[in-house]
Automatic annotation (TrEMBL):
Protein name: Uncharacterized protein
Naturally occurring in which organism (per UniProt): Alexandrium monilatum
Source taxon at top rank: Eukaryota
Amino acid sequence: EVLPEASAELPFAREDERPQPWLLRSLLERGGPPFYPLAQFHVFKGALGKSAGPLRELPSFLQVSENYHRRSWRLSCVRRLKNVICFLEWVPDAAALKRWTCLAPLSAEQHSRLA
């Protein structure tokens, strides 16, 4: 008989959870608050666990909000992640748009699913 594995009972940190408001005009600032590259996102798994490594392969235009997971939390405490409830697609300069080229070619199975 296979029993489902229960999630670990960890002492999740709760301080500094309040969202930090930010001004819409801050989107004009390149690479600054309130976002950071998703490739730098990783979580702390506790003193005995290892930190999950960053997602280095992700393109730089994918960003995550400090209100979702603060960078200061990643090596200091165990946090429960929230479900994503908002997705923002933002184009700062439509004239600078260009077709994105995929760095990894699609497999035959992926091609067949597109057909």
